[in-house]
Amino acid sequence: MSASLALRARSAASMAVRAAAWRAPRQALHASAASLKELPPGPAPGTVIPVGITKDGQDPVVLEDSEYPEWLFRVGAEESETTEEMLSKGVKNLSYLDSAKLFRMLRRDKIKQHNSTNRKVA
């Protein structure tokens, strides 16, 4: 095998290793996000929540579900597309706003990955 062919094979292998290393944490992030959808039950009605928003005001009390407006339970209920779903469509096929959202998601994932690998140990 010639030297240039060996160099190309080595660089292709290193690219595959880097791609797998990049993909693994992203898959772990999406798996942990899926587990967050199953939230534990909230506090019982009548429970006082000590948030201390105002100096002299009273702390809010948890109400029955029927006493809250209906739209409150729909906030955040719709599922947005994942990074992989948007990438599978192709960047050229996305609208301007969707492509901006995709790049924002990719940048956020890259920052999270960098922060998790470069965490300071106390």
Automatic annotation (TrEMBL):
Transmembrane segments: none
GO MF terms, alphabetically ordered: structural constituent of ribosome
A GO cellular component entry from the record: mitochondrial large ribosomal subunit
Pfam families assigned to the protein according to its UniProt record, in alphabetical order: Ribosomal_L37 (PF08561)
Protein's cellular compartments: Mitochondrion
Keywords tagged on the record: Mitochondrion, Ribonucleoprotein, Ribosomal protein, Transit peptide
Keyword Mitochondrion in annotation: yes
InterPro entries: Ribosomal_mL54
Family per similarity comment: Belongs to the mitochondrion-specific ribosomal protein mL54 family.
Protein name per UniProt: Large ribosomal subunit protein mL54
Organism taxonomic ancestry: Eukaryota, Sar, Stramenopiles, Bigyra, Opalozoa
